[in-house]
Each structure stands twice: as structure tokens, then as C-alpha cells.
Design goal:
It contains 13 helices and six strands. It is mainly alpha-helical. The protein has a two-stranded antiparallel ribbon with strand order 1-2. The protein has a two-stranded antiparallel ribbon with strand order 3-4. A hairpin with a 2-residue loop joins strand 3 and strand 4. Helix 2 crosses helix 9 and helix 11 packs antiparallel against helix 12. The N terminus and C terminus are likely disordered.
Amino acid sequence: MIKKKPSRINHRLEKDGLGLKAIPKSALYGIRTVRAFESLPVSTVKLCELPDFISSMAIIRRSCAQTNAQLGFISAVKSRAIIEACDELIVGAHHENCVVDFLQGSLSSLENVDEVVANLALLNLGRQCGEYEFISPQVDISGAQSAHQVYSASIRIGLLMATRRLIGELRFLADELGRNGSIFANQFKVSGQRLTDAQKEQWNQKILFHCLYIRGQVEKLITCSQALTVISMVNKSPAGYQDSELKYCEMTSRNINEVTKLGIIVTSDEVAPNQIDILNLSGILKSIAVGLSQCHQDLHDMIVQFVNERSTTLIASEQSYAILGTLVSQVLCEVVGNDVTVALASDVGRTHYAHVESVAAWSTLKSVCHIESATTALRTHFLNDSSSWWQLLIANIARSPRDLASAMQITQPSSPGSSLF
């Protein structure tokens, strides 16, 4: 069977050491991405499914383009085009063009992002995708930077950005527990009678325990996150490395922190592999997941203990809350499984952690995102929604039941604080 040649209208031709390859004309990726995508489909985990890591890679490329222009390594015109391209990726645009398998590791993921950045920069200059003689992914985007250093640094920054969001949500949850728990204990009625002092004390002690536990885990997250802020990334071109090593690190640190506000420190020294810091982070995440599951169970048990009448309100509430309990329980199972993967990767990768770094980073990021979602659901659905069954129970438990159809919806949480520390 004779294959039809791709139409030049819909494709462009790019060339590498293996020959020519037809690339979809609208695609922002290039030939190296296509080679990796076709040759090594290891798993179903595409880079586009991990926006934090794409953004962190773009942040590093953006910051290095700024530094290289400031030191005179590339022209201001190229730097500006690259920075504008990276800014689009940082805010979440064009991520669908990051199609390689994330578990392939550093080279494939970085080449994919570099080609997307290069082609966006070319479009910003009024050129066509694939005209790499004007802006090259290998020369102008990646430059003389170590792929492994940049990849490890992007993992650290990506995990830091995700952890910052989680810290904001956990703080919100602890605040809502402290504020609404005492209100609930003072207003809750059973058959028209308020709780006894002993029952109030029991409730408040439970709430206080979970507040303190969550805040303690937040402090551990902050401490662990501070260890991730040090990255090794040096331009090892003769001019960049020998003459401007210290200046390059200082300027790149400043440029990264202008975007992230994470307090990143770029050093020319070799930083220890990510395995210890990621392993520590994963262990804290497992503890948080266990705490959230226990918090949910205690809140549920308290309500079942204090409510004796099987009203429509209570039945509808329990049905909705059972769904939330299923969510929290499954997140706990997922996080525990991810922690096992991270621990195994750390053990297997004692000598060559780069071989298992991707799966450890992916597992840890999944844990962060899943706990964030469970925390948001628990806070907004059970503690902080003015139309939720929590507030209806406070106001109406001793009165006639109301329709809770609208109360069963999880609302959008307010934006967590942007400060990590």
C-alpha cells in the first residue's frame, strides 16, 4: 500500500540527523518532539497533563533568556521574543503542544518545551514555525545549560508552586474549622435542647486537635519547601561559565523570583539529587492525607452522635457527605500508594536517581493536587458554604427540614494566599 505524502498545505518539513519529517503546520512542537512521541510511548502520562512542570520549565527558560540578554550572550530582540513566548506557557496557553511522555525523562520533556518556546518566539517575530535559523531551540533556548540541571530545577519549582497552593488551602481549612466548630457547638440542638457543656467540650477538643494538626503539617510543608528552593543551574559556555559564573547565578535567581516569588536560590555548586527532598515531601503529604481522612470521620461521627431524628434534611445531608467521604478516602489511598512509589524510586535510584526522577516527581505532584482538591471540597462543601447543609443544620436542626438540593453543590473557594512562607 502506497502512503500518501502529507500535503504541504497542512504540514511543514523539518530535518534532523535522521532525515526529513512532516510536522503538522499548526503544531508548535518540532521534529525532536515527534521523534520522541513516536519512538518511546512508555506510559499514558503526557507532559500536557502536568501544567505545573510545563510552567516551571518555561519560567527557567524565560529567566535564562533574560540573564543571557543582560550579559550580552543573545540579542535583546531574541530575548524579548523568547520571554513573550514563555509568558504564554506560564499562564497555561499552548500546553496541548506538550505531547511527549513525561516518564521519558529530562531530554524529551525539555526538547518538547524548547521547541514550543522557539516556535512561539518565531511567530512573535513574524516568522514561520520551523525557521530555526532565526531562533534555535538548541542554541537560543537551551543554550549551554545542562538538561539534567534544568529538569531537576523545574521539578523543584513545579512542586513548590503546587505546594504553595496546597498550603493556602490547608490554612483556610484550619481557619474554618476553628471558626465554625465553636459556633456549631454553641448553636447545635438535639430535640430542641442545646448540647451539654460536656458535649460542647468534646466537640471543641476534636476541632482543636484537627486545627492544630493541620497547622503543624503546614509548618512541616514550609520547612520541606525551603529545602527545594536551592537549585543548581549554570550556563557552561566558556564566556558564561568562566567569566560570569557568580553574576549569572545572581541574575538568574532574581529573574526567576520576579515571576514566582518563591525565594529561589541559584547556585553554581552541584546540588544533591532531588530524591531526599521529594521523599520528605511525600511523607508529609501522606501524613496530611491521613489527618484529613480522620478529620472527615470525626466530623461525621459527631453529627451522627448528636442528631437522633431521621429527617429529610439529615438523610440528604448524609448522602452528600458520604460522597465526600468516598473522595477523601480514595485520596488517602492514592497518596499512600504514591508515597510507596516515591520511596521505591529513592531506593532504586541511589546511584542513578535521574533514571527514576520523573516517576517520583509525577507521583508527588499527584499527591499534592489530590490533597488540594480534597481539602477544597471538605472546606467549601462542609465548612464554608453559606448555603451548605452545615449552615442549614446550625439554623434548622430543631425546625422543619428544608430542601437541600442547592446545598449539595460545591462552590468555588476563595483564592488561597499567594505567599508560601
